[in-house]
Amino acid sequence: MKKLIVAFAMLLPFSGICQEISQHYKIYDVKKKALITTDHIVNDFRQADVLFFGEEHNDSIGHYLEATLFKKIANAYPDKIALSMEMFHTDVQPILDEYLSGIISEKNFIKEARAWNNYKDYKPMVEFAKQNKIAVIGANAAARYSNAVTREGLTILDKLPSSSKLFLPPLPIDTAGGRYYEKFIETLGGHNMGGMKVFQSQNFWDATMAWSMAQFFKKNKTKKIFQVNGRFHSDEKLGTLAKLTRYAPKLKILNISSFSATDFDNPVWEKYNTLGDYIIITDPKIKRTF
């Protein structure tokens, strides 16, 4: 197995606190009921196939930690790691692959792969993957499809041409009920969801990301995946994580829930126990990235 020797250049929007970064986050192992380090998670990943990092998209510390974890995991399990990202869509996979192969420029990549406005927060992971020839999966559904579902419901996907359906999970897509639905209603503050169509879009995103990972595993049975997404998609092992267990029931999955916590100084860990295998709370005093 090759040894990863490429330097990992962290492009952080909070460089002034890098030397004291450990003071601005805490990692809790729910099963062990103890504070741990990122190295503990890396070691636990030895027995699993997928590690979800559920982030808040504007959390500077969270972005630092997911990039750090990705580097450590890649070095611990060389030639066995792939990166899966909510931030890129299935239909731009060829563009993503072209950039990782060094064929196209970063400028073209960012424009044509429709990189998020805060791409700088994810760039360290993409660049590390590029330098070390690590596969990156554009896992999410393109906005044009999710917008169509929000307007018309999931049945609109049946009308797509067969060439478009290549970028989608198998149809029909189930809409989750139970706790996931309840959480979604709570998040919206009980507002009307237009005949469930907004919730159907959420399920469509979940299904697409889960299907993307399941498809990768079919072709790469010895690999492990580090999946990065908004934490709503994987908290409580619901959403994308739950759909992945349906597409690939034999996979062993771990999940992290990472967020800025108002009780950072004196956390009550018990109230977070249901969110994931590991809870990362970050310092709310640190400036958000957007």
Q: What is the helix tally?
A: 10
- Strand line-up of the largest beta sheet: 2-1-8-7-3-6-4-5
What's the CATH C level? Alpha Beta
Give the domain tally.
1
CATH fold descriptor: Rossmann fold
Mean pLDDT, as a whole number?
92
Distance between the termini: 40 Å
Low-confidence runs (pLDDT<50, min 5 residues)?
A: 1-17
Largest sheet: 8 strands, mixed
Number of strands: 8
Strand content: 15-25%
Global outline: globular
Rg calc: 19 Å
Which bin fits the share of residues in helices?
25-40%
Listing every helix as H and every strand as E from the N terminus to the C terminus, the arrangement reads EEHEHEHHHEHHHHEHEE
CATH architecture: 3-Layer(aba) Sandwich
Based on helices, strands and strand pairing, what is the structural class? alpha/beta
Key structural traits:
Rossmann fold; alpha/beta; disordered N terminus; 290 residues
Describe this structure in words.
The protein is of the alpha/beta class. The chain has one domain: Rossmann fold (3-Layer(aba) Sandwich). Helices cover 36% and strands 17% of the residues. It has helices at residues 38-44, 60-76, 93-100, 106-112, 123-131, 143-152, 162-165, 178-187, 197-219, 239-247; strands spanning 25-29, 34-36, 50-55, 81-89, 135-140, 224-230, 253-260, 278-282. It is globular, with a radius of gyration of 19 Å.
